[in-house]
Write a structure and sequence with these properties.
The structure is a single chain. The chain is α/β, with parallel strands linked by helices. The protein has one domain: NAD(P)-binding Rossmann-like Domain (Rossmann fold, 3-Layer(aba) Sandwich). The protein has six helices and ten strands; from the N terminus they run E-H-E-E-H-E-H-E-H-H-E-E-E-E-H-E. Strand 1, helix 1 and strand 2 form a beta-alpha-beta unit. The radius of gyration is 16 Å and the shape is globular. 45% of the residues are buried.
């Protein structure tokens, strides 16, 4: 499969790239700084650009079967319209390039999933993460109405732990406290979702 990966140098995106390469996929990484790829640069096609630019994303999209976005704001709690702008760019580029499949990383607590959150989670989402989650909500709804074969993924709090390969995934999951899931397992779920039809037009919640 030919994959275009947005946010490929981020902590989750890097896992997606590694998994895709190990599975034999043809990988194009869309990055701001190619040097951040390190030794991966010789194993992938590298496209340099701004993920919020429709023109830039379109330049890298041609000839691919799917787009996987693992974009994030790292440690920042300010959205700066990253998700609204990048979602518009990805949707527009996908349509122009004839790509139907889009797997998009969001966060549990965004949009409709806020109502399913635990008391602990709600306190975090409504304060510290308020700006980012508001921006993600707009982006997610835009993707769901895009007409593409989308999957919007809602992981609980992300960790840097190793992949366990055993986690829960469903359209709705009960929550207690502030559960977690490793970025490695999130990457595994997203990579698999891009290859099959089970989660098309669905918004899975995933957690350990």
């Amino acid at each position: 499969m030919k994959l275009l990966i947005l946010g490929a140098t981020g902590p989750t995106g890097r896992h997606v790239v590694d998994l895709a390469l190990r599975s034999g996929d043809s990988v194009t990484t869309f990055v701001r700084n190619p040097a951040a790829l390190g030794d991966l640069a010789d194993k992938v096609t590298v496209v340099t650009g701004d993920a919020t630019s429709h023109r830039d994303v379109l330049a890298g999209a041609a000839g691919h079967d799917a787009i996987i976005s693992a974009l994030g704001r790292s440690t920042s709690v300010r959205a700066d319209e990253l998700f609204t702008r990048s979602s518009a760019a990805a949707i527009g580029a996908a349509k122009e390039a004839g790509i139907s499949r889009l797997v998009w990383l969001s966060s549990f607590g965004v949009g409709h999933t806020l109502g399913w959150s635990s008391t602990t989670q709600k306190a975090i989402y409504r304060t510290l993460l308020r700006s980012i989650y508001a921006d993600k909500d707009i982006a997610d709804e835009r993707i769901r109405s895009s007409g593409l074969d989308w999957t919007v993924v809602y992981p609980t709090r992300l960790t840097h732990g190793p992949a366990k390969g055993a986690y829960k995934a469903g359209d709705r999951l009960p929550m207690k406290g502030n559960p977690t899931i490793s970025r490695a397992d999130v990457a595994g779920f997203m990579h698999q979702a891009a290859h099959d039809s089970e989660w098309i037009h669905r918004s899975p919640v995933i957690t350990d």
